[in-house]
Amino acid sequence: MKYFGTDGIRGKYADFAVSEPFYKLLGKVVGEKLLADGGGKIVVGGDTRASTESLKAAFCAGLKACGCPHEDVGILPTPALAYAVLKRGAKMGAMITASHNPYTDNGIKFFDENAAKISDQTQAILEESIDAEREGLDFSSYAGVDFSPRPIFPGEFALCEYAEKMSSIFKPGFLSGIKIALDTANGATSTVSARVFRNYGAEVFETGNTPDGFNINDTVGSQHPESLLALCRRVGADVGFAHDGDGDRVIVADENCSLLEGEEVLGLMAVDAAERGKLDGGGIVTTVQSNMGLDESLAEAGISVWRSGVGDRLVAQLMREKGCCIGGENSGHYIFSEISPCGDGLAAALSILSVMVSKGGKLSRLRGGIRMLPVESCAIEVARKIPLEETAELKKAVEECNKALSGKGRILVRYSGTENKIRLLVEGRDSRVVGDCMKKLKNAVQIDLQ
Fold first, then answer.
1. pLDDT (tens digit per residue) in 97-143
2. Is residue 208 exposed (0-12), middle (13-18) or buried (19+ Cβ within 10 Å)?
3. Nearest-CA neighbor of 78 among 88, 93, 89, 63?
4. CA distance 195 to 202
5. Which residues make Cβ contacts (< 8 Å) with residue 277, sequence separation at least 6?
6. Taking CA atoms, which of 47, 315, 376, 392 is between 20 and 30 Å from 121?
7. Which residues are known to be catalytic?
8. What is the overall mean pLDDT for the chain?
9. Who contacts 440 (Cβ-Cβ below 8 Å, separation ≥6)?
10. Three-state SS sequence of the chain
11. What pTM value is reported for the model?
């Protein structure tokens, strides 16, 4: 794809594909497609970064220019935008966000009428339309807006309709006596997740809950768990949660201030669902990025694991194909379709709390079912993204590492779909071999790509 990556369009604000002129054109193209497909409304929202309102206004101007009905549902988490699609009976949803990226970035994600990420086919059609009309776009004199910090808060849809929906799923008061530490990344879940937890009776302590447009994901949130862990220690929390900027992921800490691996969360939820006879499809879906220890551990419980490519859009797609109700990525994207049709950090947190409360135990005692294999992973900035098969040193390093692992491990090398980074993963039975392989891959990346 030329504009779309693994999760929509994303990049630095004021670059061509993340600029007001481009978003106005994009709005026109999206609106024209909706009209050509029979019409219908699109709902539009965004996160708390400084450029969101300006880009959203440009996108809506494009929709208006072609006569496409639309509703601005304000600042809200991405899963709340997906819910707005269903609640409003819309044909599409557009969420302006760059997820866990810094405020300097922005982007856009699209949902179809079923609140699922749009298909590759739809993305390709949009890209063709953009290219057909972009010649008339004058970008030569464009300069991005110079923003200033200001208080930013989620809007009425997030705080009322979405929060009310999320507060009605579980038994009233089921969190009474539970002390929760919560880091909302100065993002779109600020005040929203805390409101829902309190509606269920929890005592909530917050950090990262004062968005100003510039501090989203800045040393807080799922990318910086040290902030959550510090809060957990300070307040003696029973459990801790940290969202990313748009709220479609969550990381989890137990009462000992220890982070759960994403595989542990998936395993915990899978085993509980199986015990309740609610594990649709007889297994779960995760990505190629997850530890193979998840597969081996769940196999002992008779639970299958299917793997998709990276991205919650691909996870959801394979979940539908396999008839599964649980899926996710080890990065903290979880889809529990009993509650939400898409990745939803708040839904995931509530699901984990439900298991914790129903089993009457501490989270530290419930997490031990998944035995992780030794693994190292990293993301490295690159100056260029040449095809991996054309890299000399990296290709050679991968071959040497595969020999060193002797068929008892795996190597994953891929470019990020949203950033100028390459992601490396080495997994095996011997931690020493894993470490040696990672050093070799890093050295090769430095030679070939930096």
1. 999 999 999 999 999 999 999 999 999 999 999 999 988 788 888 99
2. buried
3. 93
4. 10
5. none
6. 47
7. 99
8. 95
9. 397, 400, 401
10. CCCCECCEEEEECCCHHHCHHHHHHHHHHHHHHHHHCCCCCEEEEECCCCCHHHHHHHHHHHHHHCCCCEEEEEECCHHHHHHHHHHHCCCEEEEECCCCCCCCEEEEEEEECCCCECCHHHHHHHHHHHHHHHHHCCCCCCCCCCCCCCCCCCCHHHHHHHHHHHCCCCCCCCCCCCEEEEECCCCCCCCHHHHHHHHCCCEEEEECCCCCCCCCCCCCCCCCHHHHHHHHHHHCCCEEEEECCCCCCEEEECCCCCECCHHHHHHHHHHHHHHCCCCHHHEEEEECCCCHHHHHHHHCCCCEEEEECCCHHHHHHHHHHHCCCEEECCCCCEEECCCCCCCCHHHHHHHHHHHHHHCCCCHHHHCCCCCCCCEEEEEEECCCCCCHHHCCHHHHHHHHHHHHHCCCEEEEEEECCCCCEEEEEEEECCHHHHHHHHHHHHHHHHHHHC
11. 0.90
Task: Count the neighbouring beta carbons within 10 Å of the beta carbon of residue 371.
Answer: 13
- Which of 118, 166, 108, 116 has the alpha carbon at shortest distance from 327? 116
Strands 70-75, 42-46: pairing kind: parallel
State residue 138's pLDDT score: 82
| pLDDT for the residue 140 | 85
pLDDT of 1 > 80? The answer is: no
Distance from C-alpha of 79 to C-alpha of 342, rounded to nearest angstrom: 7
Summarised one tens digit per residue, pLDDT across range 325-379 is 999 999 999 999 888 888 999 999 999 999 999 998 799 999 878 999 999 999 9
Tokens of 409: 């491990």
pLDDT digits 0-9 by tens, 427-450: 999 999 999 999 999 999 999 998
Query: What is the rounded distance in angstroms from the CA atom of residue 243 to the CA atom of residue 288?
Result: 23
Residue 312 confidence (pLDDT) = 86
